[in-house]
Write a structure and sequence with these properties.
Bound molecules: adenosine-5'-triphosphate, magnesium ion
Largest sheet: 7 strands, mixed
Oligomer: single chain
Helix content: 10-25%
CATH topology of the largest domain: Rossmann fold
Distance between the termini: 53 Å
Strand order of the largest sheet: 10-25-26-27-23-24-11
Structural class: alpha/beta
Number of strands: 27
CATH class of the largest domain: Alpha Beta
Strand content: 15-25%
Length: 555
């Protein structure tokens, strides 16, 4: 058993618990689960839980099931069931066996409820929800016992059967556990186990009109599947008492190796809302283009933006697992993607805000093909061909008529600059439109400077990127930035007022001709501009900006 303990790998408090449990012989193997509610798309917070659950199982050569926690048919949809599976797979994880649904266990939940009723541990309660709220008491005051608490077992069995058969109205009554109305844990004050809902369920259609509550269903689902360590976020800390109570009072599940719940702190990210309800609001109020808007913290949004599975897994590793509530700096997520793309992304050139350059001493109608490295630090990635000719595009930001100061390293009149992967050019004059904006810069090039690096004795300070104009391909650049201007947008109910007005800007420019073949979602570094990927929803050539080359948010 000790051979299973991954003692060398970096640890966390959950692994410490698992190691102890394995050593003590409490469990022979490790089983976790990822239990999303299919009521929205997965977000980066879920990715933390996915990496923890699937990652821990992988580490111990155990199992991790994907279980849809589908006990609330009103809010759920198969669209979400499908997107969640796709997102988990895309992150690089596979679940053990078939996809599970809590609804697979509706019979078991029902039998368990009947067992509790038979043991005098559950009763049908007809208090209205308002009355039940008053009876529950407060954190300072104990609750009051329901007048239905002492209904005889036989009568409760009959009433519960009537609930199940649809003979009682929605909201008329609920099944409650009989625990302790004076408990200091509110969740132990005779919590609801089952309620009536006349809703068609996406998996079980109209088979059931009673649905179990999360606290009742979750622990039984874990026990049925053989989960050993049930990992959830801190807000369920109190509910652990109920988790244990339910399993301890059911004959089939009250065993030494029954599952136990452990809580870790959820991921909160600056400048990001994370609750599915708020994300849904953004989608419904059309503040974003959909769940996969590249500014959304959803897995599908991050994917469309150009994040890679490796970067998200790396981010999960960097934030680690603890019980301390905190807010993570978005720069950390951006560092994870930048570090990944710096190594893997092929280099290319794209001009986002083009102005024309005419090389007056270059032959007309002649195009030459130059070679440029696909990755400057990785020769093994080979070379690409780039075109050079008389007409080029450079970025508007790379030209000033008069250099603003001695440190200026771009193109200015009577100044030299090196074109990346090509020649040194010198600007002689420019043309402007009626608004005073430069339209064309006339230059000469030095044919002797090809392929020589900036230390070829020419004292050329700057290097700018370009594309050859007649062969370049037009492309749209989506320049995304953080969706919110406020570091903690979740605290506000008016999300619209906190949207960053510059979070989605676009520009039409030009890219190297080979980029017409760019695969969707594949990452590229447009040299000097940042990392981009081809949009997975557009037929035309659209590149989404994933992240800049450096962290410039606070500069
Ligand atoms: P939300 O509050 O965003 O609606 P949720 O907890 O209701 O999330 P579930 O579908 O129930 O969403 O979550 C599935 C799993 O993902 C749960 O185990 C939950 O604890 C975990 N999870 C959800 N949000 C986060 C987060 N921000 N950080 C870490 N784990 C999370
Ligand atoms: Mg939930």
């Amino acid at each position: 058993m000790n051979s299973q303990n991954p003692v060398e790998s970096p640890t966390n408090f959950i692994r410490n618990i698992i190691n102890k449990d394995l050593e003590a012989g409490k469990h022979q193997s490790v089983q976790t689960r990822f239990p999303p509610e299919p009521n929205g798309y997965l977000h980066i917070g879920h990715a933390k839980s996915i990496c923890l659950n699937f990652g821990t199982a992988e580490l111990y050569k155990g199992k991790c099931c994907l279980r849809f926690d589908d006990t609330n048919p009103a809010k759920e949809d198969v669209e979400y069931v499908e997107s969640i599976q796709e997102d988990v797979k895309w992150l690089g994880f596979g679940w053990s066996g078939a996809v599970r649904y809590s609804s697979n266990y509706f019979e078991t939940f029902h039998q368990s409820a009947v067992e509790l009723i038979s043991k005098g541990l559950a009763y049908v309660c007809f208090l209205s929800s308002e009355e039940a709220r008053v009876y529950r008491g407060t954190l300072k005051e104990p609750g009051k016992e329901s007048p239905y608490r002492d209904t005889p077992v036989e009568k409760n069995l009959v009433l519960f059967e009537k609930m199940k058969k649809g003979e009682l109205k929605e909201g008329e009554c609920v099944l409650r556990a009989k625990i302790d109305m004076a408990s200091s844990f509110m969740c132990m004050r005779d919590p609801t186990l089952y309620r009536i809902r006349f809703e068609t369920h996406h998996q079980t259609a109209d088979d059931w009109c009673i649905y179990p509550m999360y606290d009742f269903a979750h622990c039984i689902g874990d026990a049925v599947e053989g989960v050993t360590h049930s990992l959830c976020t801190l807000e369920f800390q109190d509910n652990r008492r109920l988790y244990d109570w339910v399993l301890e009072h059911l004959n089939a599940f009250n065993k030494p190796d029954r599952p136990h719940q452990y809580e870790f702190s959820r991921l909160n990210l600056e400048y990001t809302v994370m609750s599915k309800r708020k994300l849904q609001t953004l989608v419904e109020d059309k503040l974003v283009s959909g769940w996969d808007d590249p500014r959304m913290p959803t897995i599908s949004g991050l994917r469309r933006r150009g994040y890679t599975p490796a970067s998200i897994r790396d981010f999960a590793d960097r934030i680690g697992i603890s019980k301390v509530d905190s807010i993570t700096d978005v720069a950390l997520l951006e560092t994870s993607i930048r570090d990944d793309l710096n190594v893997v992304a092929p280099r290319t050139m794209g001009v986002i805000n083009p102005i024309k350059v005419i090389i007056e001493n270059y032959a007309e109608d002649s195009i030459e093909t130059l070679k440029a490295p696909i990755h400057p630090q990785n020769e093994g990635m080979g070379k690409r061909e780039i075109n050079f000719g008389r007409e080029l595009y450079i970025d508007r930001a790379d030209f000033e008529e008069v250099a603003p100061n001695g440190k200026y390293k771009r193109l200015a009149l009577n100044k030299e600059v090196r074109l990346r992967n090509a020649y040194v050019i010198n600007a002689s004059r420019c043309e402007k439109d009626s608004n005073g904006n430069t339209t064309t810069v006339y230059c000469t090039y030095d044919a002797d400077t090809l392929g020589k690096n900036p230390s070829d004795g020419r004292k050329v300070k700057g290097v700018i990127h370009f594309v050859e104009a007649t062969t370049a391909v037009e492309a749209k650049f989506m320049l995304y930035d953080r969706l919110f201007i406020d570091a903690n947008p979740g605290k506000s109910d008016n999300l619209e007022s906190l949207i960053n007005p510059n979070s989605c800007q676009s520009a039409t420019g030009f890219v190297e001709p080979s980029m017409i073949e760019a695969e969707v979602e594949a990452a590229y570094q447009f040299e000097r501009e940042g990392y981009f990927c081809r949009d997975n929803q557009s037929d035309s050539l659209v590149f989404n900006k994933t992240v800049g080359l450096r962290d410039t948010w606070n500069q």
